[in-house]
Amino acid sequence: MEFKTNRQVVLASGSPRRSELMGVAGIPFIVRKPQVQEPPIRQRENPANYAERLAALKARDVAEREPGAVVIGADTVVHQEGRAYGKPSGREEAKAFLESLCGSVHSVSTGVCVTDGELERTFSVTTDVEFREAPHWLIDRYVDSGDPMDKAGAYGIQSGGALFVKGIRGDYYAVVGLPIADMFEVLDEMGVISAGKGDGL
């Protein structure tokens, strides 16, 4: 499906996965990478709120450089029992993350901020993911593939990380990095999706 928009939509992200999901949603867009340094999570900060804070930081940064456009920022945080798992700093940390997550349930929160520089809507979607127990050789093999290195929690559910997943409860696309149904609803409520939205059906 393809939909029409009455304003330029900008994805404030360098993530190829988020670009792919925007394509799935059928929304025409351009990409602009935010130029911000991500601050660490605050003490006792809720991980979902942290994801929203980072998403807003990214969206506002790009909105300043794209006047008149509707900018979408997003950030994903993997967390378990109050601990947030960011992108691993290297092989050993990636391995430690996966060893900690295997055989248990963790949560993935993706924060989204949609702004045009004046009006702003921010929300988050949290999904629970259960990992199987995994042998050390499988974790080593996955880490050696390089796939975990640019992903929160050191895994991609849409790629090799799928081998660890026993089940999920919630929005799969939020785990990948962008809850597209909720995002589309916000864009529609903000009037970004034009009256000709059925033309591409």
TrEMBL record:
<dbReference type="GO" id="GO:0005737">
    <property type="term" value="C:cytoplasm"/>
</dbReference>
<feature type="site" description="Important for substrate specificity">
    <location>
        <position position="76"/>
    </location>
</feature>
<comment type="similarity">
    <text>Belongs to the Maf family. YhdE subfamily.</text>
</comment>
<feature type="active site" description="Proton acceptor">
    <location>
        <position position="75"/>
    </location>
</feature>
<dbReference type="InterPro" id="IPR029001">
    <property type="entry name" value="ITPase-like_fam"/>
</dbReference>
<comment type="function">
    <text>Nucleoside triphosphate pyrophosphatase that hydrolyzes dTTP and UTP. May have a dual role in cell division arrest and in preventing the incorporation of modified nucleotides into cellular nucleic acids.</text>
</comment>
<keyword id="KW-0963">Cytoplasm</keyword>
<dbReference type="InterPro" id="IPR003697">
    <property type="entry name" value="Maf-like"/>
</dbReference>
<dbReference type="GO" id="GO:0036221">
    <property type="term" value="F:UTP diphosphatase activity"/>
</dbReference>
<dbReference type="GO" id="GO:0036218">
    <property type="term" value="F:dTTP diphosphatase activity"/>
</dbReference>
<keyword id="KW-0378">Hydrolase</keyword>
<dbReference type="Pfam" id="PF02545">
    <property type="entry name" value="Maf"/>
</dbReference>
<protein>
    <recommendedName>
        <fullName>dTTP/UTP pyrophosphatase</fullName>
        <ecNumber>3.6.1.9</ecNumber>
    </recommendedName>
</protein>
<keyword id="KW-0546">Nucleotide metabolism</keyword>
<feature type="site" description="Important for substrate specificity">
    <location>
        <position position="17"/>
    </location>
</feature>
<dbReference type="GO" id="GO:0009117">
    <property type="term" value="P:nucleotide metabolic process"/>
</dbReference>
<feature type="site" description="Important for substrate specificity">
    <location>
        <position position="158"/>
    </location>
</feature>
